[in-house]
Every structure is written in C-alpha cells, then in structure tokens.
Amino acid sequence: MPLMPDRAAPSPAPPVLKRATLVDVAAHAGTSTISVSRALRRPAMVSEGLRARIMQAVQELGYVSDTAASALASRRSGVIGVLIPSVADAVFGDLLDGLYDAVAATPYTLQLGNTRSDAATEERLIRIHLGQRPAGLILAGIDQSSAARAALERAECPVVQIMDLTENPVDMQVGFSHHAAARTATGHLLARGYHAPAFIGARIDPRTERRLAGYREAMAEAGLAHRARVVTTPKPSSVGMGSTLFRRLRQYAPDADAVLCNDDDLALGALFAAQRAGLSVGREIGICGFNDLDVMAAAFPALTSVRTPRREIGAAALSMIATRLWDGDVAPPIRDLGFKLMVRASTERV
Amino acid sequence: MPLMPDRAAPSPAPPVLKRATLVDVAAHAGTSTISVSRALRRPAMVSEGLRARIMQAVQELGYVSDTAASALASRRSGVIGVLIPSVADAVFGDLLDGLYDAVAATPYTLQLGNTRSDAATEERLIRIHLGQRPAGLILAGIDQSSAARAALERAECPVVQIMDLTENPVDMQVGFSHHAAARTATGHLLARGYHAPAFIGARIDPRTERRLAGYREAMAEAGLAHRARVVTTPKPSSVGMGSTLFRRLRQYAPDADAVLCNDDDLALGALFAAQRAGLSVGREIGICGFNDLDVMAAAFPALTSVRTPRREIGAAALSMIATRLWDGDVAPPIRDLGFKLMVRASTERV
DNA sequence: TTGAAAGCGCTAACAG
DNA sequence: CTGTTAGCGCTTTCAA
C-alpha cells in the first residue's frame, strides 16, 4: 500500500487518486450533475449534443458511478439476491450458471447467499438481503420458515421461488414437480419389469421428501406398497455415500432389483458399488439417478436419470424479475418447466 | 405489488411500512443517532446501560442498518468481491464453500463475479467491484490483463490472488503450484512403470498450461520428451469430453500406456472410455486425475488423483483479508498450500 | 430539455 | 462516554 505523507502539502496538483464524481464530470462537460446522471441512466432524456460531451467527460475521467450513493438516493439497489442451500452442489452450480448468464445482459448484480439448508440461516439471510433494498430476490425452494415468509410478503421487490412448485408462492415461481418426477422415474422402473425398486437418499430435505413421496405413490399405485424399500441418511450426499447406501440396501433388502437414487452422485456411487459386487447393472440391478448431470450419459454403462431444467430455471427466474421491474406484469408468474426421463442402459433389464 | 393512493392523506397513523432508521432507534432509546451507530459497530465504546436500552430499541423496531447509507458515509462497504472463472465447476464450488464458511464468522458479505475465463470480462468485473469500494477482492488466478493489474495495484483494499502462485502477486496470494503438481503426478506414473504417459486437457487456460509444462518437464527429465503425447481441445471440460479425448488419444498414440488428465472429469471420462474399450484400468492403462473430487476415491477402480486444497484456499484467502482489515499485517502474505498425490488402483500397474 | 435545491441514512470529526 | 455538526455522492422533486 502506498504511504501518504502525514499532511499533504497544499498544491495545485489534483488530489492524488481521488475518484471522479458526478460533480467532476459535470464540471468537465460544462453542465450540471443531474444532467450527467440522466445521460447515464436515461440517455433519451438528454439532448444529443450534451450527451456526447458528457460521455466524453465520463471517458476521460474514468468515471464510475458510486453504487452506494446511488442506492441511497434512489432507494433502489440493482442487486438481485440469490439464496441457495449449497454452493458446492453441481445442481446449484448449473442454476447459477444460468443465472449469471442471464444477468450479464442486464444492469443488475447478483448477490449470493448460502443457506446451508438451514431455515434459521435462510431467515437471517432473507432479512439481510431485504435490508439492502434489493431489486429482486430469488429463493431456492418453497420451504421458508413462517417468519421468513412474513418478511418476504412485506418485501417491496419481486420475489421468485425456484426449483420447486407450490400452491401458494410468495410472489412468482419457476420450477418443476419433484413429486411427479420421482413418480415418473419409479413408473419407468416398474414398466421395465423391475419388481422391487428401492429408494436411496442422503441429507433428506423437503425437496427430497417430495421425491420420496412420489416414489411411494408410484409403488402404491402399482399395488407394491409392501415392496417399497427406503434407505436414507442425514449425512450429505456424495458418490461415496451412494456406494455406502447401496451396500446397506443390499443387506437390508436383498430382494430389491432396482434403485431410484435421490441424486446423480448417489446413482454413480451405486453403480460403482454394484460393479464391485459383481452385479450386472441394468440386468440384475436397475439404477436411476436424478438431475442428469453430464456424467450420467458418459458412464459405463450409461445411467438413466431424470433431467431437470436447472439452467433454464435460472434464466427464467432472472427474466421474470427483469420483466417485472421493467414492464410491470409477468405472465405467467408461475412456471412449470417440467423434467425429462433420460432412459439409458442402466435400466434396460432385458 | 400493493397499490398506493395517489397522494397519501395526512394522518396521525405511522407511515405504513417505513423502515426504522437510526433516528427512530435513537428517539426510541432516548439518545442520539451516533450512539446507536456506535453501539452497533463498537459496543465497547458505549456504556453498558445505554447499550442495553439501544439494543432493546433495535429489537423492538426491527431495525436493520442501511448498507448503502453506511457505505456512503464510511467509504467502506463490507463487501468482499470474489472473481472466479466458473460457477458451475466443482473445483470452484469447493472453493466457494470454504469462502462462505469462513465469511459467516465475519461481518463481511461476498459478492461473486463470473469471469467465464475471459480476460475482458474479468477486467470489467474488477472495475465494477473496485467502484464499489469493496472491503477486499479475491481473484482466481494470476493471469489478469495488464490493464486489470494496473487497476488492482491502485486498489485501496486488500487483494488476494488464489489457486495459483506467481513471483509477483498484486498483493497477497494463496494457492499451490500447478506445475509442480503435474510434475509430481507424471513422475508417479513413470515410477510406477508406465513408459509413455500422455496428457489430455480441455479448455486450455493459463493454469492448464502450467500443468502441461509440469508434465513436459517430468517427461524431459526422464529422457522421454520424445514420448510425450498431448491431446487437448478448446471446448469445455466434461466427463463426456474425457471419453472423447481418451479415444482420440488411443487413435493418435496407441502406444500411450497411461494418461494424466487435466481434471477429474476428464479422468472419469477416460475411465469409462477405457472400460468400454475393454482395457484393464491400472494394468493396461494408467489413469490419473487432478483435484481429487470425492468421486475419485469411490470409482471402480478407484482413481489416482492430485488432491488440491480448494476449501482451505478459500478459508485462507478470507482470513488473510480479515486479518489485514483488522490487524494490519498478514504474515506470510504469500502461502503455498501444496497438494497431495492420492495413489489408487488406477495407477497400480502390477 | 435543463437546472437548483433538498435530502436519502449513515458515520467522521470534533466538542463537551 | 456522549452528542453536535457536516457531509458522503447521488437522485428526487420542482421550477424554468
């Protein structure tokens, strides 16, 4: 860091390193600060000639608007908050990718919050974000605490709940039905001739619960409720955990001939564990994942999975907020982006 | 959005929904705004009694400090900027995890920027972040454009370059040597008796280049420079791409008996491709990854990889900034967190 | 289309 | 330890 003399000698030289402000730009362009402000935010409100002079001054002085001052004066911040349960999970990575992609074309900035799947943390983060007068708020999931929900309902900005669907969203929502997806996947296993598909899941959260319910419903509909087998753990999901749960399942329910995995990591772990056990994946044991990360199609044998529109959800959420902010109305404010079962060798039975 | 009457009728009722400000809290607690401000930021500067009254008023009014006003008045923002090349990559996911974990214990907030491995984007983001008077800036990589570097050197906040090491950091740095890591991994393959280890890589960036150089150096040292085989693609890395590159390698250099993969995704893809080709992984073909994601140990056969301290780097970077901000000096301002070769079945030869 | 004046809510600096 | 006084740099009226 550069050292400064105790007291700078008064000198005609410009104060070193002081950032240019609107006042500086206005002086440089021979106009008022408000015109500069307008030229920058709504170019159409300023005559062409003035605008040109202003833009040049901005260039020459390397002016960068002060976000804080702007937010304070306008009571608006340009920050869109995003609250997700995990930053390390590939599923949310894809979501973020879609989000960052979409935001690049707007004047907004994303501010990420990591809830760690903890309701209290989420509540705290919601408060903090709301305190910053965000331009919008994007929340993963629909399971906010009631206090959080109350705060959200008082929010003066658009709010989008994503990744899931609920009857009564706070404001807007875009996602897909985890229940239906699991139900479809289970139906697929049954249709392929697996008689006793099981379910394995790690770190059970509300989203997972809905998938599990979908699995159970499909089993019940097939008159196989008594054959439902579920193995879960509160620990975080990982490929290694997938292997562990698979082994546990084989021990607890040796009759299970297929397994619906709560996510792709678990499915991959199940695949490796099955191979270690010398099982023929697809024929002796069916494996189906959830999310359809790129690895699923590349695996050997290729793994069946439910493709979820994570990137698309991110893009849609951002566009919904931008639309609301610019045009006012968003239609429809509730979007089901669906899912798609990607059938591959791991559930081929034959 | 709630509708507002054109002109609110003057009424004795409290203005609906108006957020409490310092003035409100001060009035409620019977003191001045500055004392409230102090009680909140430096509790020690206020007597116990006053503090208690203030805290209660804060509670009762649900006061939340206005970030923008605070930043404007103090010329400090509490925001630590983090610029990474990808939000979807598991490697950076782990980094973020470490970062978010560490920041939770501080009063700071992280603001993520996605450079998409693009120097111009990175430069732009650096400017934007710097314009917000961040409390600190964390940059992945050491390959900023010269304009970006110039801006960074003028920055008035701590700057940490992470994930890599360079002779002349902008300010502080924490990472490990990609060159040395690849050199070590290649050395391992040679020591295990593989005579012609190749290298595959996707989306070659400067970090990758250094790994490749490490590979080449190890080959040269072993007098096998003439046996070096490299297959790369500008496309993004993925498991599927790993399979593709592996097949391409087999075609182009059928004599290669091992492959050092630029990342774990590629290694996993190589594993699957090798299995598809009926090769015995470990014996007929050695496979080594880079980063050691959880999947590597769980795979069948388990895959050798270079473990990189991503979470630790995140935690260290944040602590370096916090220390600089609170205590002034950070020692040492340059940290090599090293790496560790995790040897597993995929390079067992035997 | 342009400008002048008046804050936004907070904190730095200086007094008591 | 506590309070007063001035802004921070921008945008919002309102007026010309």
UniProtKB/TrEMBL annotation, chains A, B:
Q: Where is the HTH lacI-type domain?
A: 20-74
Gene3D superfamilies membership: 3.40.50.2300, lambda repressor-like DNA-binding domains (1.10.260.40)
* One function term, GO molecular function aspect: transcription cis-regulatory region binding
Could you tell me which Pfam families the record lists for this protein? LacI, Peripla_BP_3
Sorted keywords for this record are: DNA-binding, Transcription, Transcription regulation
Q: Which PANTHER family match?
A: HTH-TYPE TRANSCRIPTIONAL REGULATOR GNTR, LACI-RELATED TRANSCRIPTIONAL REPRESSOR
Q: What is the recorded name of this protein? A: Transcriptional regulator, LacI family
